[in-house]
Amino acid sequence: MEHTVLQHMWIAPLVALALAQVAVVATSVYLHRGLAHHALRLHPAADAGCRALLWLTTGQSRREWVAVHRKHHAFTDREGDPHSPRLFGFWHIQLWNVYYYAREARNPDTIRTFAPDIAEDWLDRAVFSRGLSGLAIGIALLCLVFGVWVGLAAGLVHAVLYVFVLAPLINGLGHWRGAQNFGNTAYNSRALAWVTGGESLHNNHHAHPRAPKFSMRRFEFDPSWVVIRCLAAVGLVEILGAPVRLAPPGVEGRARGESNDE
User: Fold this and answer.
1) 124: which of 57, 86, 140, 252 lies 20 to 30 Å off by Cα?
2) Is the Cβ–Cβ distance between 217 and 227 less than 8 Å?
3) 95-114: per-residue pLDDT in tens?
4) Distance between CA atoms of 177 and 109, rounded to whole angstroms?
5) Do 236 and 46 meet the contact criterion of CB atoms below 8 Å apart?
6) What pTM value is reported for the model?
């Protein structure tokens, strides 16, 4: 029996990687572009679906996430930013981003000030406010589908990938090193954008927070934009702004912040 379990353990990292990508894209599409910046409007069915996915894979509160992120934009890389590597150090954010996020999410003034439009509805009160229950059910489903040991291993690897690798890279490296199209304190990583749902095109996002698409130049790829276009094609998402397009470097010089969505 142990030999059979070991034979199937190779599935665990693949499942974990898939779960991490689902969580990253749902966070980017729903929490970030939809709720935090109003670049999208989701159909009620898509809204409920994204909330369910995030409940099962991250246990995050949508109101807390939006409030912390908006405060980050209000105080980017200066006193008051909840998770700036320029204030706290790169490795502090990379390794302990979850601590800085949780600390700010517990601040009632942050929630009141930066997420007054995100009110709890009956789904939040009945289901989605119980984040630990969502994670427990998510792990139980993994165990039911893949077996106990594979399910537990997949859940653990997913947690490490999402909490200690992907999310911190956006907040940490995204404000530490990389390329820039615009003159702000954030940076782009074309390579990491492929595995962070486009979120690592962070310099672009800080220049145009309400742009629904984060890729703005040739060879920049935003995976979440592909998902958004698919959802829009079937009427589950309404795109509220035009994507920003920049000329190739050298055609019009370094970008200064111009866009065609304003």
Assistant:
1) 140
2) no
3) 999 999 999 999 999 999 99
4) 31
5) yes
6) 0.90
